[in-house]
Amino acid sequence: MSEKQYVIFKLNDEEYGVEISNVKEITSYEEGVKVPDAPDFVDGIINLRGDVVPIINLKKRFKLDTDGIDENSRVIISDINEKLVGFAVDDASRVLTMKDDDVESPPEVILSNNKRFITGIGKFNDEIIIILDFREVLSEEEKQQIQRMQTSLEQSK
């Protein structure tokens, strides 16, 4: 039986996970530069060692209550279509190793609502952890829009 490691993070009081192989790094949240006409869920862009990185606010993207940023807020950096993208979360506190048997497929009712980014439901002790795939959080159109924004900003450097 195989197992995988997941970075566990919080949005409001709920715990979510993403496979550690999809995580490049985790940084403290920093206020990004606002970009005109960017989608509402893009908090801004940051310069991460020379790379222009858009920050996607997952709470805004998922239409959850947004209660602001605090000292525990983090940005999980991931590679989406060979471009770095940051995902703002309330906290990224631990790494869990879960056996494949501990992660179930999402219920059909979730999948039927075009929630392709939910890849599983993890059960760890008494906890339920929603497993996400960051590569599927954005629609193809949104990915292209963000890539155009990144390319434009990189060319203007």
TrEMBL record:
Quote the InterPro entries the UniProt record gives: CheW, CheW-like_dom_sf, CheW-lke_dom
> A GO biological process this protein is involved in?
chemotaxis
Q: Where is the CheW-like domain?
A: 3-143
Question: One of this protein's Pfam families, by short name?
Answer: CheW
GO CC terms in record: cytosol
Record protein name field: Purine-binding chemotaxis protein CheW
